[in-house]
Write a structure and sequence with these properties.
CATH topology of the largest domain: DNAb Helicase, Chain A
Number of strands: 16
Radius of gyration: 31 Å
Strand content: 5-15%
Structural class: alpha+beta
Distance between the termini: 45 Å
CATH class of the largest domain: Mainly Alpha
Shape: globular
Number of helices: 26
CATH architecture of the largest domain: Orthogonal Bundle
């Protein structure tokens, strides 16, 4: 277990400027530093980072927190994982143990797949696995690769996975649903036989499926894949994600390839920021995954007609989603796997270091099957380019492209503008994105939220609260206030950055507390303002208490109780709160 004290020591040892600037560029302006916020579509520096207070705040989207919350949000990891990342960056020992538990909702399915993986791995290391190992050796896949990618082997009916799993009391129905076995004429048989097995993991590293490849000459399909199941959705997975994520974050670049073998070859050759598609086209879920990585995207698909088409189609999908991919087209060998085997990883790395822009790729792509010396083909080519430019939000790039076409093909720029105008493209400013409706808070809610925010920042406000108010009627405000007081009385001090760390593992208040921090616009924490908020809260709470007393009096059947309640009501109306 990691103690609150150890977390606080790590926070104090980590300068928020150093950590955040390792992710995004920061520029100092006065006391604070500013950068482009990575948590929304930001084009000008709207995130302020305070070295003095060790907190950050985006004045556009409201994102706020300390060094741990920034890393947690940016890396898309849980709080303690963020603490470990910060500790590692600072060279500070981290004594906690972080384990990722398999989701309980499908616990049995994950257990079955994990056991299947171990079964296949054991087969490959057995005597019967020698031919498969020899094949892997010929493909330049050594023991390190076998271990890193958990490669295994499916054998014949004499070494059956389904017999093992049934002996472990798993049902035939479960095995059928996961696609590990099939039923034929009343018999249950393994789906995968005499194939080298490549496990497929979900984003958290759990085994959810397999790809099986033949290794002996026969007439079977070269590859077969697990069918989709309750835990395996191809459209929600990118192959190698759980291994490559850290390197992608570090390099701020992701290389997307077509095949699993391409990813394995590149990763084992040192190009570890590589992911592979699980189909021919990116899904919305996969695009969302790529967006969350906040990295430059390079598409490097096979060197054939299908690979070129896939590059255009997937590049367009990414462009429509607001991402701008770059393109690498290799020559000679069919795919990155073969390219590395023939030319070496350094040759491939040089290609990756000099990618095409997606626009330049499209200018070449649209020439496919066209003879530009012919008027009809040239006109068709130019129209394709102009039609594609309508999706480009950058007016400067549009204009430069039109000028390039005009120069290269001796076409009037005015004519090109005229053709472009026919597309009737609305200006971006005419259709601004819809803003989400903001939650409306009462004057009382705002006062309570400000009181809590002030208390999170300075102990003098905690003392004033205890003396002048002491509690809130609403449970969510009361719970946060109790934690603030507890933290302050134990630490003898309070500041926002340290309090954020304290509440980050307290699920019952962290969301409400962080929402208050994000919404608060207060810069100067003055006692006069705090006292005004206390007065507003006190008045509203008194009104609620008067209302409650009136209801009790109306429903009371005890004369003495009525008199006592009436006296309390009178005192409250006179402005005497409490007794």
């Amino acid at each position: 277990m990691v103690t609150d004290n150890e977390i606080e020591q790590i926070r104090k040892s980590a300068n928020i400027i150093d950590i955040i600037s390792s992710y995004i560029p920061l520029t100092q302006k006065g006391k604070n530093y500013f950068g482009v916020c990575p948590f929304h579509e930001d084009h000008s520096p709207s995130m302020s980072v305070s070295e003095e207070k060790q907190i950050y705040k985006c004045f556009s989207c409201g994102a706020a927190g300390n060094v741990f919350t920034f890393v947690s949000e940016y890396e898309n990891v849980k709080f303690l994982e963020a603490v470990k990342i910060v500790a590692d960056k600072c060279g500070i020992p981290f004594h906690g143990r972080i384990t990722k538990e398999k989701p309980q909702a499908n616990k049995e399915e994950y257990e079955i797949m994990s056991l299947a993986l171990k079964f296949y791995q054991n087969n490959l290391q057995s005597g019967e696995g020698k031919p498969a190992k020899e094949y892997l050796k010929q493909r330049a896949l050594d023991e390190t690769v076998i271990k890193d990618f958990s490669l295994g082997l499916a054998l014949g009916s004499n070494v059956s996975l389904n017999k093992l799993l049934l002996s472990k009391k798993y049902s035939q129905e479960s095995l059928l649903k996961l696609g590990l076995v099939n039923e034929h004429d009343g018999y249950i048989n393994d789906v995968f036989k005499y194939r080298i097995m490549f496990p497929i993991h979900d984003l958290d590293g759990n085994v959810v499926g397999f790809t099986g490849r033949i290794y002996e000459n026969n007439e079977q399909a070269k590859y077969i894949n697990s069918k989709e199941s309750v835990i395996f959705k191809k459209g929600q997975i990118l192959f190698n994600y759980h291994r490559a994520k850290a390197e992608i974050k570090r390099k701020k670049e992701v290389i997307l390839v077509e095949g699993n073998m391409d990813a394995i070859r590149m990763y084992s050759s040192g190009l570890k920021n590589v992911l592979a598609l699980m189909g021919t086209s990116l899904t919305k879920e996969q695009v969302s995954i790529l967006k969350s990585l906040r990295a430059n995207i390079i598409l490097m698909f096979d060197n054939d007609n299908a690979g070129e088409i896939a590059t255009y189609q997937n590049g367009t999908i990414l462009e429509d989603a607001g991402l701008t991919p770059q393109i690498v087209r290799i020559s000679g060998p069919k795919d990155p796997d073969e390219y590395i085997l023939k030319n070496g990883v350094d040759a491939l790395r040089k290609n990756i270091e000099n990618p095409l822009s997606f626009l330049d790729f499209k200018l070449k792509y649209f020439k496919r099957d066209k003879d530009l010396s012919k008027v009809d083909d040239l006109a068709s080519y130019i129209k394709e380019i102009i039609k594609d430019l309508k999706n480009l939000p950058d007016e400067l790039t549009r204009e430069l492209t039109l000028k390039k076409i005009s120069t290269d093909y001796d076409v009037s720029l005015d004519l090109l503008h005229s053709e472009f105008a026919k597309l009737n493209i609305p200006k971006i400013s005419e259709s601004p994105p819809k803003k989400l409706a903001k939650t409306k808070f009462s004057k009382y809610d705002k006062a309570c939220q400000n009181i809590l925010y002030f208390m999170m920042n300075d102990g003098k406000f905690v003392e004033k609260f205890k003396k002048e108010l002491g509690y809130f009627d609403e449970k969510k405000y009361r719970s946060i206030a109790n934690e603030i007081i507890y933290f302050y009385e134990n630490s003898k001090n309070i500041e926002l950055s340290s309090f954020i760390s304290f509440i980050s593992t307290k699920d019952y208040i962290v969301d409400d507390a962080m929402e208050i921090i994000k919404m608060n616009k207060a810069i100067d924490l003055e006692m006069n303002a705090f006292e005004e908020f206390i007065c507003i809260a006190k008045q509203e709470m008194t009104k609620n208490e008067i209302k409650d007393l009136k209801n009790k009096i109306a429903n009371s059947m005890d004369v003495s109780e009525e008199l006592e309640l009436a006296q309390k009501l009178l005192n409250l109306k006179k402005g005497c709160v409490g007794k």
